[in-house]
Amino acid sequence: MANSSEILSHVLKAPPSSVEPMIYQFLVPNSKGLDNFLSIYGSRNTRQPPSNAPPTPPPSPGPDNGPALNTSSQDPNAMPSTTSGVDAMSSSRTSTTSIPEIELSIFTAATESFTRKNTNCSIAESLERFAPIMSTAKDHAIRVRAYISVALGCPYEGPDVDPHAVANLAVSLLEMGADEISVADTTGMGTAPRTTQLLRTLKEAGVASEDMALHFHDTYGMALVNTVVGLEYGIRTFDSAVAGLGGCPYSPGATGNVATEDLTYLFESLGLKTGIDLQKMAEIGEWISGEVGKRVEGRAGKAVLAKLRADR
């Protein structure tokens, strides 16, 4: 997070071209972070988009369809949105440069141990920190996305996280003003039965599917299975990362988010038309992995890249 402000400033001053509107999320851990955000965001009306910026192949990563886009109220066969992916839409569409939309992200956790380790406060204290952030965001008409970490397993308290604790936390965050709740399996411990139990509990607590996103890590290879469970419960927003990048320093062994390439292949296999060019996404995944010194983790991405090499 050390250079978050620098990145935000660059995005606001020189937004990249995209065939779809981009939504960027700025992580705000406390009021100090909010003040830092507002000092940069306040100049948004004075920035000018680049007039003649040449493209740099391959295209830089950016969210496909935006990080908090819900499709539940649309066609039930519409593509679930995958956040933190790439702009790999059909090349026949014209790219345009537009003013990016910014959302604020806040995060807490479903267990006290993880919350104290990650943010040095209790769950109750984390909610107190969020109150002024929520209020200020509403004053500026900025959407807020709230994350609940370790909802299906904690590295300190084990896999049996109480689903009622997650549901109560989700309700509290929505009542405070959160626009969307991202329920995160940070450790990748989630299984289909426990994901089902959690989603059932959230539904019984009155948390609507259109107010939720699911955030799966693929540590134990269960992310796609749990995604299908989420689809069956009406969830239409799923977090992902191109090439499966990411991880968590407070969850030893945890992999990155489920790969956007894998989610795209899954959705397409179920008849959901994503409009995403899987080959382009795989190529971008290979590129960015090389840039950060990581290997491509997504299985679909590896398969597509292997086929491309064989065809050449």
Structure description:
With 312 residues, this protein is α/β, with parallel strands linked by helices. 39% of the residues lie in helices and 12% in strands. It has ten helices and seven strands. Helix 1 (4-13) runs parallel beside helix 2 (31-41), helix 6 (192-204) runs parallel beside helix 7 (223-232) and helix 8 packs antiparallel against helix 9 (278-292). The protein starts with a helix and ends with a helix.
Helix-strand topology string: HEHEEHHEHEHEHEHHH
Helix content: 25-40%
Q: Which runs of at least 5 residues are low in confidence (pLDDT < 50)?
A: 45-78, 84-93
Rg result: 19 Å
Describe the strand arrangement of the main beta sheet, using strand numbers: 1-3-4-5-6-7-2
* Strand element count: 7
- Give the N-terminus to C-terminus distance in angstroms: 40 Å
Biggest β-sheet: count, sense, barrel? 7 strands, parallel
Which structural class best describes the helix and strand composition? alpha/beta
Helix tally equals 10
Shape: globular
Average pLDDT over all residues: 81
Strand % is 5-15%
Please describe the topology of this protein.
Layout: H1 4-13, E1 23-27, H2 31-41, E2 81-83, E3 101-109, H3 112-119, H4 123-139, E4 144-149, H5 163-176, E5 180-185, H6 192-204, E6 212-216, H7 223-232, E7 237-239, H8 260-269, H9 278-292, H10 299-311
